[in-house]
Amino acid sequence: MFKILLALSTLLFSLTCLSQDLVLQGRLVDENNSPIAFANIVLLENNSVVNGTISNENGIFKMEQLKASVYTLKASFLGYQTIEIQVDLKSNTQLQDIILKENLETLDDVTIIAKKPTVNRMVDRLVFNVENSTLSNNNVLDVLTHTPGVLVYNGAITVKNATPTIYINDRKVHLSTTEVMQLLEGTSAGNLKSIEVITNPPAKYEAEGGAVINIITTKNIAAGYNGSVFGSFKQGSEYPKYSYGTSHFFKTKKLSTYINFNDNPKKEFRHNQEYITFFDDNEQVGTSWETDFVRTRKTSNKSINTNIDYTLNDNNSIGLSANMLIAPRENTKNFVNSATKVFNTNNELDSLFITAGRLVDETFNLAFTLDYTHRFKRAGEELSVSLHRTYYDFSSFQNVDTDYLYPDYSLIRDNRFQTFSSQVVDLNTGQLDYVLPIDESSEFEAGGKASIISSESIVSQYIFNNDIKEEDLDNSDTFLYDENNYATYVSYSKDWDSWSLKTGLRAEYTKTTGNSISTSQDNENNYFKLFPTIHVLNRINENNEVYFNYKKRIYRPRYRQLNPFKYYLNDNAYKIGDPFLKPQIDDVFTLGYTFKDFTFEAYYRIENDPTQEIVFQDNENNTLKYTQTNIDKSISYGLDFITYTQIAKKWNVYLLTSVFYYDNQFFALESNNELLTLDKWSFYGQFINYFSFLKDNSLTADVSYLFISPLASGASITSERSGLNINLRKTFWNNRASLSVGVTDVFNNQNFDQKTKYLNQNIIMNSNMENRLLTVGFNYKFGNFKLRTNKKDIDLIERDRLN
Fold first, then answer.
1. What is the DSSP string of 473-520?
2. Is position 452 within any domain?
3. What value does the mean pLDDT of the chain take?
4. Based on the domain organization, do 204 and 60 belong to the same domain?
5. What is the pLDDT of residue 543?
6. What is the DSSP string of 371-388?
7. Residue 330 Rama label (left phi>0; alpha psi -120 to 50; beta)
8. Does 34 share its domain with 166?
């Protein structure tokens, strides 16, 4: 029935088109036959404009309802010579490709004036345009903090209360969540064009994960060399933090090369308090612990990102990309000192113990991708092939010493243990994508992907008896994990005058095998899943839009979440994974309405078998267990309001508010596996003011305020947080250099409490970090700095599960 309706709709639409006036269409390309997107095309008759449009992402443009006449078609785009051609229109006409040539001389004289960012709604995404805006001299992570719908807070990036997948130029960033933050913080935003926020990604994107943030860099528009150096300094209450790097780009007619290096040496300070009430067999208070933690972490993560693109001919090109992150052992150290007071049932000090933990670790994360692209003679038709290899090697050594004392601080006993752990992941993928424009307003896509993953995780724990080191075989293990994933997808999109449709279907088959060497325990899991997507947008008129989208998606367990062994943090706390974790399957529905610059968006999300780390207290042994487990179900829904608008000529405002309900259903593993519910209404709001000063807008200020109400997550409630940030930036020397100064969390209100209280569980944790920071940053560009980089990254979802 659906096929019949689709065929009838297509026929009626075609008949309608025949009844209209003449149509003129064509495509804009550069001298390398690459499409030029978002160029201006106007049609003139007797020097008067009669029609105008812009080219789409494939360089294609179309003008309708034209009468027969002789016209002048004028096409222009920044960095290219404007072209004018004469068109004698007598019938529906498809022009030959229009080639725009680079305008190098004019480009060198361009003075870029900072402008405000803009927000555009497309059928399947929100586009935040930042090129040459007041944000373009920050780092990429700073720009994300201003992006509508994106929340950057407490070392994490979230979209609608979930972690998104980061892409650069439609290529997945091949780093773990923590490493992504470090990469974006060390990357200048000078070459940013836009940021796309895709809350429900279409079928082309992996079914794995939630929203996608696609960071688009500006295109190459001139040959030659450019480069930049950049750096930042942040001073908190305890330690300074640094970041510096350099980028270089060189382009000839056929060759484009890019390399970026950044280093982020810093020391981070954290002061936590933890309060635990342990219960006896009668569920009465047995003993209570108060712990004071002081942690200092030293890191210096170095990343290198590079790619080489070579155009073989008009229709074929190849590329080699690499992402490398290295965290050397000598610069990656963790110091944890804690003191715990133990009180009896009468709240009298019974004893105490003092722990000193020392940890060093090392990470090598190396990713390489080889791309091949073939462009067919038909405009926009394209076939691409991608081969990828990741090698991830992590190792860690930990030493923990604990002294147990009487209230008068005399020694009862002492204990010492050491832990060596490592994980090696070998990941290989192959991907094929095909794009076929059916006509100027519709497109078909299809593709497939195969991923082969193997992982080896080792933990070796050692105890000391009479100062003699022995391996603790009960807490040592090797876990082998293999995963094969095969996927195919099809997608169709269509644009009408006021409607846009994009729909698709992705099919994935996954086979996993896990093997614990010490227990000889094997587990296998095979499953086949279908993931449909649909996006519909109706442009009611110039000021009103309504849109709806739906997506089914999957979250596979991170590799470390599957490790079945215990990793002890101290004598009384350990982490443990679960090789039997099930993948999380979500259904997400979104309905939105946009009026001018104001957007209202309602969403409903069902999460089946979500994986979370939940802390449980073992009342019998007085220990804490941080365990990876599938909670039964979570349901969330909410209403978001977003606006990005101009208040005055040099004052723009961005406002995001979200009211949402989160319902967690989880199994209380330490309370007879009872099914419990933790639910809560929450709110967060973000208010950002952009000010520009001076005649050339070279002095700008950003003032932002963030508020988050108490949140429910898993079995815990996190307290409210807020923060005021102020940043000033001045550009110099014809925009070649910039200097920024600011303060984050002016009133130091971003620390929080976390409470886990139900049945026989009672844990309270207070977290205090260096949130209030004085920041200073600089950026200097040299060479032909108005070049556009070919920077890109690699498309691979599995790497996100490394950490």
1. GGG-EEEEEEEEEEEEEEEEEEE-SSEEEEEEEEEEEEEEEEEETTTT
2. no
3. 83
4. no
5. 87
6. EEEEE-SSTT-EEEEEEE
7. alpha
8. no
pLDDT at 464: 93
CA distance 764 to 767: 10
Look at the chain and report how many structural domains it folds into: 2
Residue 457 one-letter amino acid: S
Q: Report residue 3's pLDDT band, with 50, 70 and 90 as the boundaries.
A: very low
CB of 589 within 8 A of CB of 547?
no
Q: 142 and 98 share a domain? A: no
Report the candidate in 422, 426, 295, 296 with the shortest Cα–Cα distance to residue 362: 422
* In a shared domain, residues 65 and 185: no
Q: pLDDT digits over 643-663, tens only?
A: 878 888 888 888 989 999 988
Q: Contact 202/550 with Cβ under 8 angstroms? A: no
Domain-ending residue, one of 108, 141, 158: 108
Residues 37 and 55 in one domain: yes
Asked if pLDDT for residue 304 goes beyond 60, the answer is: yes
Same domain, 662 and 627: yes
- What CATH number does the domain containing 30 carry? 2.60.40.10
Position 559 scores a pLDDT of 72
Element (H, E) at 239: none
- How far from 475 is each of 540, 564, 620, CA to CA, in Å? 64, 10, 19
Q: Are 629 and 612 in contact (CB under 8 A)?
A: yes
* H/E stretch holding 142: helix 140-145
Query: For position 223, what pLDDT does the model report?
Result: 57
Confidence of residue 155 (pLDDT cuts 50, 70, 90): low
Look at the block and give the residue holding tokens 């009862």: 412
% of the chain residues with pLDDT over 90: 37
- Higher pLDDT among residues 630 and 450, named by residue: 450
Q: Rounded distance, CA 395 to CA 72, Å?
A: 66
Instruction: Kindly tell me if the per-residue pLDDT of 800 is higher than 70.
Output: no
3 state SS for 665-712:
EEEECCCCCEEEEEEEEEEEEEEEEEEEECCCCCEEEEEEEEEECCEE
Task: Look at residue 95 and tell me if it is in a domain.
Answer: yes
User: Can you give the residue range of the structural domain that contains 13?
Assistant: 2-108
Stretch (H or E) spanning 358: strand 349-375
What's the pLDDT band for 7 if we cut at 50, 70, 90? very low
Q: Which of 108, 129, 147 lies at the terminal end of a domain, its last residue?
A: 108
For residue 303, the one-letter residue type is S
CA angle 288, 292, 297 (to 5 degrees): 140
CA angle at 471 for the pair 466 and 472, rounded to the nearest 5° = 95
> Same domain, yes or no, for 205 and 269?
yes
pLDDT: is 643 or 183 the higher one? 643
Does residue 42 fall inside a structural domain? yes
Do 180 and 168 touch, CB atoms closer than 8 A?
no
Q: Does residue 99 share a domain with residue 125?
A: no
The enclosing domain of 486 has a CATH number of 2.40.170.20
How far apart, in whole angstroms, are the C-alpha atoms of residue 19 and residue 536?
Answer: 26
